[in-house]
Each structure stands twice: as structure tokens, then as C-alpha cells.
Amino acid sequence: MKIAERLLVALSEPMWCGGARVVLGASAGVALLEQYDDHTEPVTLSSLLQGADLALYRSKSRGRGCVSVYDVVLRDELRHHLAIREGLRDAISTGGLRLVYQPIVHFATGEIRGVEALVRFDHPVLGPIRPDQFIPVAEQSGLIRDLDTWVLRAAATQIAEWRATWPDRPVRLGVNLSAAELRDQGYPA
Questions:
Q1: What is the pTM of this model?
Q2: Which of 88, 109, 129, 175 stands 20 to 30 A from 118 (CA)?
Q3: Which residues contact 137 (CB under 8 A, 6 or more apart)?
């Protein structure tokens, strides 16, 4: 750990390269053999490198100049993350998601002006997963476009059913989409 911290300090020192001042920023991930003493998995060079890589991702998420050490908490977080990702992948393809509808109420009159579609995910093993947990997983893993598409299709199907049932009542429906997807120029198409 101390070696990694000293290395980051050394790397942050300004240097001159081709007449230009260059300042580097770095993060570090460390895996120590003693972190594997719970004997739940075999210790190999590959597992040590994987642990260091996971710790590096933790450091990068915290910002430049951080050192993180692999530990069982990080391992368990990764397993949880992977379980959510794989469960979400299955749920998108098999219809394991659902929408709930929250009324949009005009504050002054109390009149319901529409509804907002909110996606819910019940993992087959972990149980209900909150959107603030599974949406970032979808964004990080590249599943967000499939998730947004599923939500749009399910919401469009529901509003078509409501309009067929109540043709004289206009229904407004709001849908949340990922900001990450909206930055993509080709997304509206």
C-alpha cells in the first residue's frame, strides 16, 4: 500500500517533455495475499491480478490519486453487481421487468393530469432491486439501451390499451430514459 502511494506521488510530479510541462494523474489497485485468507477461492496469480484490477476500478470511481486495496467486501460487491447484471439481462429478454404507474397530480386542483411509468425489477434470487441500484448497472454494462427500449414498448402498449378502454379520456404518460442514452445523437431514431 505504501509503495503504491509513493508511486502515485512520484507520478504526480510535473515533468518536462519536448518543451512542454506534463502532469500525470494516476490511480492504483492493490491485491495482497493476506486478503485471501478466508479460503473461499483458490489463490492464483490470475486471481491476484483480478483482485488488483477490481481495486483499481474502485480507485478510478473515487477519482484520481486514490489507492484501493482488494478485500472481501469488494469481492462481495462485485458478485452482487454481476448477479444484478445477469438477472437484468435475463429479465429484459424474458419479460421479467414490470412497470408501475405513478399519478402526476396538478398541485392546485388535485386533478390527475397523467401518469409516470416507473420500471421495477424483481431479481429471482436477490428479490426486489431498487432502480438506483440496477440503472447504473445497466448503464455500465451496456444494457441501458435494451432496458429503455423495453420500457418504451411496455409503456406504449399500456397507453394503447388505456386509450382503447377509455377513448374519450386523453391520457398523458411520462417515461424516464437514461441520460447516458440521450447523449447519443442516433438515439431518437
A1: 0.70
A2: 109
A3: 81, 84, 85, 88, 143
- Using the predicted structure, report yes or no on whether residue 25 has a pLDDT greater than 90: no
CA angle 101, 147, 164 (to 5 degrees): 45
Distance CA 30, CA 43 (A): 15
Q: 467486501: which residue's cell?
A: 73
Q: What is the DSSP secondary-structure string of 114-179?
A: EEEEEEEEEETTTEEE-HHHHHHHHHHHT-HHHHHHHHHHHHHHHHHHHHHH-TTS---EEE---H
Rg (CA), the chain: 24
Distances (CA, A) of 98 to 78, 132, 163, 188: 25, 16, 20, 23
